[in-house]
Amino acid sequence: MTWDRRYLLAGLAASALVLVRRGPAVAQGAAETAGQVEEIEGTAEAMRPGQQARRLAAGAPVYVGDVVRTGPDSSLGLKFLDDTEFDIGPQAELTIDAFVYQPARSVGDFAATVAVGAFRFVSGGVARLKDDAMRVVVPIGTIGVRGTHVAGEATREETSIALLDADDDRPTRIVLRNDAGSTVIDRPGFGTTLRSRRDRPRAAERFSDDRVRRIVDRGRFQRRLERFAQRRRRRLEELRQRGQPRRDGGREERLDRLLQRRQGGTGEQPLRAGESQPGQAQPSAAQQRREERRQQFKDEQQKRQERKEKQREAQDERQEKRRQRRDDAEERQQRSR
Predict the structure, then answer these.
(1) In 199-284, which ranges are continuous DSSP H helix?
(2) Does the structural domain 31-220 have CATH classification 2.40.50.180?
(3) How far is CA 146 from the centre of its chain?
(4) Does residue 206 contact residue 162 with C-beta atoms inside 8 Å?
(5) What tens digit of pLDDT does each residue of 81-125 get?
(6) Mean pLDDT of the region 232-252
(7) Average of pLDDT values for 288-293?
(8) What is the spatial distance between Cα 48 and Cα 234, in angstroms, rounded to a whole number?
(9) Other CB atoms within 10 Å distance of the CB of residue 231
(10) Could you tell me which residues are beta bridge partners of residue 35?
(11) How far apart are CA 4 and CA 193, in angstroms?
(12) 3-class DSSP state of 265
């Protein structure tokens, strides 16, 4: 082979190498679809770095890298490709930092940032692949999601996070981490509030129904929460018909309480499993007795669950005190040195 031919082949190889290296750069410039707008009330827009803001409407796609903002008196419901539901309320800002979902390879990654505003999410396929595959950054730290339903609100003064019931009876849990430590929230109806990511996360405390309802109301999440509660009741009824035991203590009533109307004392509530619409045939006496026995059984389960929660609260409080004493002792040792 002559030297000229060798130089020609080397040049072609170098050119091919340059083209291969340029390929990924072109691919990275393309927008990766993460989900779409499922519901919108009012106005919302999305913007990617280096691009103009685009007005969002129902069915519009959202992409990795999008910064999504809502207007006053507005709310937005997003549905991601792994079936994660993510809602934000008025004047909120959500950034989609990362999204990958390849269930056949058990690969998934979901990262988002809520800078301000009310938010609510129900995790989907990514969170079920492995612990902390889904992460939501808020001003006070990072929420590691392990299959759950969460509502919260980030303001200039503080950020509140509440764990809600899942859409079936699967265990539900989040871990809040920041620069000062971490805390686990694994009981629906419990949450925490912090002012800064430099504050040590406190042990989860029980959030009253009114406290959670205020987050739901400010985020304008009522309609989507109603649909979620209906879906939960259907799935729980399917479990009951299959004779499968409940692992959550039979506590679907919390969502119904959150959805109670407070307009003029009308007392309008969503229907529960076994209730009938006005005008439908009334149940027979035997059906009423069965329903009463079922309700008594649920009440007993509720009481047992509440006793267990009180015991766990006491245990968490003891653990928090021991941790505080240990930290104080370590701090005194460091000062003595």
Answers:
(1) 209-219, 222-241, 253-258
(2) no
(3) 9
(4) no
(5) 999 999 999 999 999 999 999 999 999 999 999 999 999 999 999
(6) 67
(7) 70
(8) 39
(9) 13
(10) 62, 80
(11) 73
(12) coil
